[in-house]
Amino acid sequence: MSSRIEILNDGGYRSDGRRQYELRSIDIDMSPQGTADGCAVVSHGLTQVQVCVFGPREARKRAETLHDRAVLNVEVGVLPFSAGERRRRGRADRRILELAASIKSTFEPVIQTSLYPRSQIDIFVSVLAQDGGLLQACINATSVALASAGIALGDLVCAVSGGVHGTFPLLDLSALEEGDLPNVTVAITPRSGKVTLVTLETRLHVDRFGEVFARACEAGRVIHTEMRRAVRARTSKLVDAMGAGTKGTGEEDVERDVLMSEINDF
Amino acid sequence: MVEITIRKRPRTEAVVTQRKFFKKTARGKVIKVLRERYLRDDVCCGIHSCSICADSASSVLPSAGSLNHPMFPDGHIVLPDTNVFLAQMDLMESNLFNPPMILLQTVMEEVRHRSLPLYNRLKALVKADEKTVWVFYNEYRSETAVIREEGESPNDRNDRGIRKSASWYNTHISLSRLPVRGQAARPLPMVVLLTDDVANRQKADKEGIQCVSVRKYVESMKDSGKLLDLLSTPGSDDVEPTKAVAARQVLYPDYLPLSTLLAGIKSGHLHQGHFNANQYNYLEGNVSVSGFDKPVLLIGRENMNRAVQGDIVAIEVFDESEWKAPADEVVDQETTLKNDDAEESEEESDDKKTIAERRVLQAGFSKPQASAKQPTGRVIGIIKRNWRSYVCHIDSSSLTSSNATSLSQQTVFATPVSRLLPRIRLRTRQAPTLLGQKILVTIDRWDRTSRYPEGHFVRALGNVESKEAEQESLLLEFDVPYRPFGKAILDCLPSEGDRWVVPPKSASSPEWRDREDLRDLVICSIDPPGCQDIDDALHARPLPNGNIEAGVHIADVSHFVLPDNPMDNEAAARGTTVYLVDKRIDMLPALLGTNLCSLRPRVERLAFSVIWELTPDAEIVNVRFTKSVIASKSAFTYEEAQIRKDDPNLNDDTTQSIRLLNSLARKLKAGRMAAGALNLASPEVKIQLDSAESSDPIDVAQKELRETNSLVEEFMLLANVSVAGKIQGAFPQTAVLRRHLPPPRSNFEKLQDILQKRKGIPLDVSSSAVLAASLDKCVDPSEPAFNTLVRIMATRCMLSAEYFCSGSVARDTFGHYGLASPIYTHFTSPIRRYADVLVHRQLAAAISYSPLHATLHSKAHVERVLDVVNRRHRMAQMAGRASVEFYVGLALKARGERQGSTEEAFVIRTFRNGLAVYVSKLGIEGLVTFKREIQFDPDAYTITIPSSDESTTIAVFDKVSVKIEVEKDKNTQRGRVKMTLISPVDSRNL
User: Fold this and answer.
1) Of A11, A178, B457, B577, whose CA is between 20 and 30 Å from B524?
2) Is the pTM for the entire model greater than 0.80?
3) Chain A residue with minimum CA distance to B17
């Protein structure tokens, strides 16, 4: 029973041993999958999401094309074994449609769609494992997958969930915490400092919102450095593999780049 | 700016950090659960000035450990196992037991899973000032985390984790204090595993971990004598082999396993409920269960099967042919079982005793049962024990040697003060010194082979009948928190202390923000004499348009008590101020209660005002709520106000204001009575204390009620009703309200029957208005007190009022039955009731004075707080009543020394061998028992006492006179009121 587990104990530890502002382990894998143009498997702790991006390519249905920009098509599939309870969700499941709609509306302003007129970009999201923070994982994975597909992005979008326990904000909630606490998911574009998505499905007191929101925005920047590091590492590995890259190990480059980006960003 | 980091959890560690298991839900679905945990190296060891752990600033454990224990001269730190906390919590809580202690997370969680009350005590222990306890989160530290191995039980896994932590600590200490070259190596303190689990000790020994049993540890301590008594009995098993337990006779049937019980309850052939012992007859108890209108009766020891008052039990109901009426006899445990021996020699006395008991039971059953039968049943299992510490006396007859210097261990009986509890068998070395004292005893267990529960001594409260001991025992018995306020709480008070004043009026001062300046109004307060916490004041003045403006001003406690700080939490836990005859246990620190919040005369104070515009007929035209600053002009007692009002020579503003208020109050009361409000009565007496210092009671008097009492009451009711409407409108989900449910019709059946049969008066209970009218008709022209008696008895048939959260119950159950108001709350006494503080906050938010704190938006939170407040409220009432009873006893004793006291009394209940009487002058109830056989007619509620010349019949409601004496029971030292009948017959020789 969840009531038997303390969300935040007196020692300041959460039920999985993290402290208030510690994010779960992030793993970003950008190795290619099948024929996809870009893809990424991102995991936040035990939540794992795979995103494959196809396009920009010619739209299947001519009627749906727009003459001045690309059309985004987001489809989400939740694998039956991803959650604790084995359940097959249909394509028309309300929650899944809503998830897809939020991903779509998050990325529409970020992808420079006007560069790809009369084309379509397909984003296929499959949820492999769920342990809280589903939306954040989907957005982060989509972000990286789009980058790996080489689609022009204004910025990487970084999402983080946050919740409030009593008066203490917590970041990156696990499923256990998500079930107990009011929670928000915030997605930001760190370079411009803009917020592209805020969702709040539970009730949260106005006075508490400000702090969680601010913390989540800061955490977005932390995730951003992590994402850039992964993208950079992948790129330099590819470049090395082609044998035409700069000499020196990729690692050093990555480090320097992170520093540079921090100077740029803040 | 806080640091946000990503914790890395390498794949290679997944074995330790990731856990997958399947669980089956109640519906039978299988759910896969995946958990991860993050192991870290920055979990602090808590030892002061540790060179390895980074943030040792908050560390509490002394670096040399404790040097006070002779077994460990180099210093040691104790690391207790879970079983220590489960079995020996009293020892751990004792002030004498204070070695530095490491509390492992594993242990805490295990305790939490086993018993929530123990866990709460453990948490309090960690925070206690006089203890040095460090909580070590071993499951999160990479070196000490363990995972369950194949085929290992969870228990074994936890034990292994505890041992691992213990050995880690020892290496950690040696690593952090590497010997410096050239200096002699300092002796290192040792971490000692404290456990009563023999297997765990053996394993620890094998692994080279220092470990010791609790008894051994305590025995070699300095104050071992006092501490050893605190050890609960299971701990003594390995020391003294008990006398052939198996050979002893099994007295009680075994309990069924919990799973069977739960399945049985689910399927409906078993029932679950709270066990209530019968205070008149220790061989009888009852359990109220859903499904039966009447409580299920449990007759005899075997059927009650070791249930103790308050336990949640599972019962089996007997066949209808075995249903019986409750016995009509008074059976006292002490007299029936006087000769029971506390030592284990059950066999010899067994026959005699059971025969005596059987006779009592048989007598009850053999007689034809004309009155309604009740279902009967037996306890077949315990769902949850609700044992706590009980206030007891040592039974002097059970002592083997009363030599005051004897330190030999003896087994004695402790008789609880409450009549609802069985005697407790207790082993102690201090028996002779404890004789004649009130002591606190905890029940440890109750075996099938033992007639009595076994317990251990917790602490002595003081001599019987010394006021301190009686007071403390009252507080303990009713679970009233009475510790002085801690530092954290006092820190929440304004820093100016008693020099705090309302700052001069200015736009910038936060106190004056949105506050009305009502300092010029003629406001006064009316309270009982000697009242220090004045939380209400009133005013009234005529308006130019012919209407009247009336205002109620309540101390603005919520200005000082801010939500969710230590003071607020403490107040929420205390729930209410408890008034004993000679002591007040405050809910808020005295600085607030009797000074800063008290609306004292001629001082500017912050207030929360409700101001009405009323027509001269007391119709509300308009009401507004505002925070204000007032300066009360005078503080009256009820008597002073009454005299002032009635004095035709006085015509100043204050007096006119009181007269105006009084005229309104009369109309308000008339309106309320017309709407069907009940005029109830409860036995209220006042203890007159001799002087403030000695506080010896000299007399008991009935409380007098004046017109001004009713004046204040009416306006408080009006304020409460107005406020209730406002906050319910503003916060329909979480408003804090108070309701009084209409009593079920069946509660009145007996009273109706008695009234009809004895007096020929019908009682109509179909609604509160009808009941009020019908109570008014219950008069006996020859006996003015009769009406009050009926009102008291009617009040006892009703349910008690309760606080509730408006979102948790249906809208149509909001009503207050007694006041005949559709909605009600408590707003007027925030100094002494916590619910009022919540209401103040909600009202402040409703008038947009301040935002509502997050916690008051949560229905679950409000419900939780109100549950506590309701319970505390009930307990406070009972404690207050018990305190009055004690003083009545003292007063009687004082009076009795001068002359024997004879009082008039009414018979309120008849038994087969006695009468229950109510002495209205003293507000006490008593029991008159007859040793001789008498005739008893349960249907007519009469008893007949045969005598040689003529027999006398006494019935319920008859007036008798009784002689009241305070008699000290020689065995238990329990002073108790003994009543004997003087007229119509003298029962002294009956």
Assistant:
1) B577
2) no
3) A16
